[in-house]
Amino acid sequence: MHKKFYASGFFYHPPTQQILLQQKKSTENSSSLWSMFGDECSSEKNAAQTFLRLINKLLKIKIKPDFIHPIYTYFHKDIGKNHAVFYAEVHEVKNFSSKKGVFTWFTFKQILKLQLSEQTKQDLIVGQRVIDAGIRKGLGLKTLE
Predict the structure, then answer these.
(1) pTM
(2) Does residue 54 fall inside a structural domain?
């Protein structure tokens, strides 16, 4: 039997250094928070498979597993389960639409001005650090391992 976990993440476009986030449609008049794509699951063998399934289901796009990169995994006390965070590298900035929400591309600087939960903000900051470390490593610069 698989343990339940939560997988989430965002798209990342390296040339423009933009990320794709979603704002779920709310029935209330208040504005909704921006968030990463995420889903709870216990059927897949790992969180990366859950993230791939979620992307395909929500955005109708197939991403090769090689383009999915882990950021980190932690125990999320608010939801009471492990939470794995990923980013998917994409080669073009496409506009997506869905009845479930709004999807918009942002730079990492812009996310500081968005309405985000504190945990989402933390996950995105860590994500940016992981991406930046990968860029430095690709340039042959020293990074912490």
Answers:
(1) 0.87
(2) yes
